[in-house]
Design goal:
- It contains 9 helices and no strands.
- With about 170 residues, the chain is an all-alpha fold.
- It has a domain of about 90 residues.
- It is extended.
Length: about 170
């Protein structure tokens, strides 16, 4: 858990629990929080961290542990197997989409995302900032090379969690 948090860029506080500051920093950048509203939001976050810090950190720990638990690993492997080998046979090649189909799919996905902005986010940062931030994050996730890098980093983290002896091998290289 500690290695995962460090790899994800979360700072560890004295007790070894992850701090929420990376999430707070990314929300500032994504949702363009400036001026008086930024000060109010930072004060609110500080209050929440002091009041519910252990609860939030425990929730994060529990969620990460659940994501990497044995039962979920079985689910991931089953989904992978069923996707690539449905009914025990190699899946047929999928038809290549045209550029027009790709653009239409991208626009529909962005619209669905904008139609389903959580109320808590809208109430916290305002509707205009929430829409702008969601669009900013959506566009950032359209970068193919960045997505490949993210996938590689996540796969490396997963392999290091599943096979800790790989970390020692990589360190010796």
């Amino acid at each position: 858990m500690t290695a995962i948090c460090q790899t994800m860029g979360m700072r560890l506080m004295g007790g070894g629990t992850p701090s929420l500051s990376p999430a707070s920093c990314s929300s500032e950048r994504s949702f363009e929080l400036r001026g008086m509203f930024k000060w109010v939001r930072k004060t609110l976050i500080a209050l929440v961290q002091v009041t519910f810090g252990r609860t939030i950190n425990k929730q994060i720990r529990d969620t990460v542990n659940w994501i990497f638990c044995e039962q979920m690993s079985v689910v991931y492997i089953s989904v992978f197997r069923d996707t690539f080998w449905p009914n025990g046979r190699l899946a047929p090649h999928v038809k290549v989409r045209t550029d027009t189909e790709r653009i239409e799919t991208k626009e529909r996905a962005q619209q669905k995302l904008l139609d389903n902005i959580p109320d808590a986010l809208t109430n916290l940062v305002g509707q205009q900032n929430a829409r702008y931030g969601i669009i900013k994050i959506f566009n950032a996730l359209q970068e193919a090379n960045a997505n490949k890098h993210l996938l590689y980093v996540l796969m490396e983290m997963l392999l290091k969690e599943v096979c800790p002896e790989l970390s020692a091998e990589v360190d010796n290289m």
